[in-house]
Design a protein that fits this description.
8-stranded mixed β-sheet; about 15% strand; about 375 residues; two-stranded antiparallel ribbon; Rossmann fold; Rna Polymerase Sigma Factor, Chain: A; about 35% helix; alpha/beta; homodimer; 12 strands
């Protein structure tokens, strides 16, 4: 992987006090942009990525040589039309695609590993806000993202109520539930159970806890798909065989599929980053600072919200998205909401779901015309 | 653990041809009984256990020193009233509580490990049917069990249509879904990823893949509980601390709970047995032999069925239980069905759910009065 030459990086000079109490400065934020910033600088959309995403939203990701994670939604004439909008996306801090994270070196040139500070969704968006200064953007046209990207959307507009005209959280929650935490903890336990993890110091001897990380990915992957979608796609179909083999190889296509998902993930993701980012998600509870009153998180913004959920998403179900709508309604905020019919589960926001993509596009383009 | 003296064992002399093609004979079935067989021998109930259960249904399990897995349902005056009924339960073959399994030795005195034959639900019930001959029981009063126990109930009455007067499958399915297989495969991958697993030969050097098995248990445990139940019980409650610690210890009670569930499981269960039993569940597809027509599996029985599901069970949801009812209705079988309201998820069948326990008791006692 020729990583460095393909990664644009902003070095943030300004000190950032993290929620854990530590202060970081002179740290890198790796980012990518699509489309062009217009002269009024009023066409910028900041996209936030999910747990395993990165800054390479669309087109071919130069590191993995695969399509960017939001290629269905972002590009010329797509929902986020890059002929019209200037899209910015950065790798979250704690990540492993160039932004400051556990695989970076501390001032003594030792790889951080688990000595990297535990970061939060709040820290992530506070770090990313520096990109606005970098581009000289006073106010974004929109902020959007699904899953953990949606959490960052909610946190960003709460922290910076005047910094975006529109706000589109997708398939997300304002607070990680016990079941969400349970699945993330399962993933962390799978990683730390791998004898190659070595308390996070695996980078020093060039082995890595790939088996544990693959198991963590498989667990998460199941939660991204719906029971019905899995049944329709895989059911009990066998993997290149006439009948059961009475062994422990992958007899079923679903087994083979999961193993594949685990193995390709390991090639592109860092196990310690997986620990840090899932921790940030579990710590996310936007209403906590407001004594449990979620409405207060949005009291200072005049932004126009559009919230999107999916019928078969059981990770961040419609009700958790509706709870955000209810909180916004109760303070008279400008808020739209749509629940999209889809059997593709939580992953619907990443896939070719026409009703979703057209609702997304229409909201953006209509709002932009009102500019 | 003083295992051997507390385990009653029947050595099955009769050869049993397994679905994989191999034949076993002179193999042990470990069993337990509760209550007394009456002189007419018409009060026996065969209970089938779930994935991680064993023959110690109620009272103190002499091996673990904990309550038996179905103590809420089985005992004097309980749903299965041991003052009235004679309860038999045996450890499934492939298991690790005395019945023939991968921790046993092959004829060359070498521990089987993954050389043990892959077994099926069909093999399990064919093995257990030998207990009827052992006790001289011509016809059982009832067969029952939840989860994988329910699968055995369905398979048993299909194989032996005249061997039980009543049939009570609980929280189960007639065919493992893609999502079910996915979660089981996740567990197997967690076990085999553990460097102590050593292709299943861990018993030879007294290390065992406890970390991997614990991860497998955590994954499964999440599927046994409902999202709502987890939220009500744990939510975001912290574990013996005032606030988040910004580290990777268990900050949340749900994390601590899962870790505990993983660690206690390892003390009582064998990792290879976990592989074999989950494989048997994944292979379960009762209609397969009947060209997909589930009704045909029950065409030869006159037994009276009572099927029970739980509203918040997302592992074997009500619809999959109803599919069994529909198959029975279509051949005019005698079948009752109840969906019990509970937020305790799949585990409801093991817990103190009064509506379930009273429906269960009423069906049994009314059917027995008709004897």
């Amino acid at each position: 992987m020729n990583t460095e030459k393909n990664i644009k990086t902003l070095i943030v000079k300004k000190p950032l006090k993290l929620d854990c109490g530590k202060t970081i400065k002179d740290f890198p934020i790796a980012y990518e942009t699509y489309g062009s910033l217009n002269s009024k600088k009023d066409n910028a959309i900041l996209v936030f990525h999910a747990l395993t995403g990165d800054q390479f939203v669309t087109g071919i990701n130069p590191i993995t040589n695969k399509e960017g994670w939001w290629s269905y939604a972002v590009g010329p004439d797509k929902a986020i039309d890059t002929n019209k909008y200037f899209v910015i996306c950065s790798n979250v801090i704690g990540g492993c695609m160039g932004s400051y994270g556990p695989s970076h070196k501390d001032p003594d040139q030792k790889i951080f590993g688990t000595n990297f500070p535990v970061i939060t969704i709040n820290d992530m968006v506070n770090a990313q806000c520096n990109l606005l200064d970098h581009f000289g953007i006073d106010k974004l046209f929109s902020i959007t993202g699904g899953s953990m990207g949606g959490m960052q959307v909610l946190q960003f507009i709460s922290n910076f109520p005047d910094k975006s005209k529109t706000v589109i959280p997708i398939a997300t929650t304002s607070s990680h539930s016990a079941q969400n935490i349970a699945f993330n903890e399962l993933g962390r336990q799978a990683i730390t159970a791998d004898s190659n993890w070595k308390d996070g110091n695996y980078t020093s001897n060039e082995t890595n806890p790939g088996k544990g990380l693959a198991v963590a990915r498989m667990a998460a992957h199941i939660t991204y798909l719906s029971k019905k979608g899995l049944q329709e796609k895989f059911g009990r179909k066998l993997q290149e065989r006439e009948d059961l083999k009475f062994g422990f190889d992958a007899d079923f296509q679903i087994e083979s599929y999961l193993r594949y998902q685990g193995s390709v993930f390991v090639d592109r993701f860092d196990a310690n980053s997986y620990l840090y980012i899932t921790r940030a998600m579990d710590y996310f509870d936007l209403a906590k600072k407001f004594n449990g009153n979620l409405s207060q998180a949005f009291i200072n913004t005049k932004a126009k919200f559009f919230i999107i959920s999916f019928t078969s998403d059981w990770l961040y179900p419609t009700q958790e998205n509706k709870d955000i709508v209810i909180a916004l309604n109760s303070i008279g905020a400008d808020v739209g909401f749509v629940e999209i019919e889809s059997d593709k589960g939580h992953d619907s926001f990443l896939l070719d779901v026409p009703d979703f993509l057209s609702a997304f596009k229409n909201f953006l383009d209509k709002s932009y015309e009102e500019n």
